[in-house]
Amino acid sequence: MEIRSEIASFLAKTAEHKKIILFDGVCNLCDSAVQFIIKNDKKDVFRFVALQSDLGQEICNHIGVNQKMMDSIILYEPGIAYYHKSEAALKIASDLGGIYGFLSVFSVLPNKITDTIYDYIAKNRYKWYGKKEQCMIPTPELKAKFL
């Protein structure tokens, strides 16, 4: 129980007014997506943590993420809610704004449809894009974006 309160305190301090993206740290597609989000996050909305990391696992436990969801991207808005799969991807695109915000029109589709597409890509991501031996180490200039 003490760990949960420590995580809650950490999240409140570290990610205040930030949204946390939990991602597969060994997936090349996911890594490319994170790099894309960082490049286009003009409002500095997001912070990142790999699902495989201790902190990623602790955050998932803290917010009550089902273990079955840990094979997808998770967007956590501290104190509000968390989203996974296509819903997380569409909310991230919406928060990026600009031309990417138009992707939010797909939010009107049922999650069953958008998650089916998401699941197909997720199922094949290692085959199509490859996998790393370990999570990426952020460069010094990107370190502040990672928890």
Strand content: 5-15%
- Whole-number mean pLDDT: 84
Q: Strand pairing plus helix content: what structural class?
A: alpha+beta
Largest sheet: 4 strands, mixed
Could you please say which CATH topology applies here? Glutaredoxin
Rg is: 15 Å
Shape: globular
Our count of helices gives 5
Low-confidence region ranges:
none
β-strand number: 4
The side-by-side strand order for the widest beta sheet comes to 2-1-3-4
Helix fraction bin? 40-55%
Describe it.
The chain is of the alpha+beta class and 147 residues long. It has a single domain, classed as Glutaredoxin (3-Layer(aba) Sandwich). It is built from 5 helices and 4 strands, in the order αβαβαββαα. Strands 2-1-3-4 form a 4-stranded mixed beta sheet, sandwiched between helices. Helix 1 packs across helix 3. The chain is globular and about 40 Å long. The two termini are 21 Å apart. The model has no long low-confidence stretch (mean pLDDT 84).
What are the defining features of this structure?
Glutaredoxin, 5 helices, 4-stranded mixed beta sheet, 4 strands, single chain
Task: Offer a concise description of the structure.
Helix content is 46%, strand content 12%.
Describe the secondary structure blueprint for this structure:
Blueprint: H1 2-14, E1 19-23, H2 28-40, E2 46-50, H3 54-63, E3 74-77, E4 81-84, H4 85-96, H5 111-129
